[in-house]
Amino acid sequence: MMKEKERPIRVLIAKPGLDGHDRGAKVLTLGLRDEGMEVIYTGIRETAEGMFKLLFRSMWMLLL
């Protein structure tokens, strides 16, 4: 459990590739949010270049 004054951990979840198998990413997104983390899920078919651009532009702490 996080204390009120602590900044939440920021997590970016992206699903690279062309397939639609994204259930695990969605479950992980909800679980991390339930634990108080700030989570962005970019959806499916994300490119590696797009994931890293978003990661560095937004100063996220973790990329899954």
Please supply descriptive tags for the structure shown above.
16% strand
Give your account of this protein's structure.
With 64 residues, the chain is of the alpha/beta class. It has one domain (10-63). Helix content is 36%, strand content 16%. A 3-stranded parallel β-sheet has the order 2-1-3, covered by helices on one side. Helix 1 (23-34) links the parallel strand 1 and strand 2. The protein starts with 9 loop residues before the first strand and ends with a strand. The mean pLDDT is 82.
Can you lay out the helices and strands and say which pair or pack?
Blueprint: E1 10-13, H1 23-34, E2 38-41, H2 48-58, E3 62-63
Parallel strand pairs: 1-2, 1-3
Order of helices and strands: EHEHE
The biggest beta sheet, please?
3 strands, parallel
Going by helix content, strand content and strand pairing, the class is alpha/beta
What is Rg?
A: 12 Å
Q: Give the neighbour order of strands across the main sheet.
A: 2-1-3
Tally of helical runs: 2
Count of domains:
1
Based on the structure, what is the oligomeric state of the protein chains? single chain
Number of strands: 3
User: How helical, in percent, are the residues?
Assistant: 25-40%
**Roughly what is the average pLDDT, rounded to an integer?**
82
CA-CA gap between termini = 21 Å
Strand content: 15-25%
Shape: flat
**Ranges with pLDDT <50 over ≥5 residues?**
none
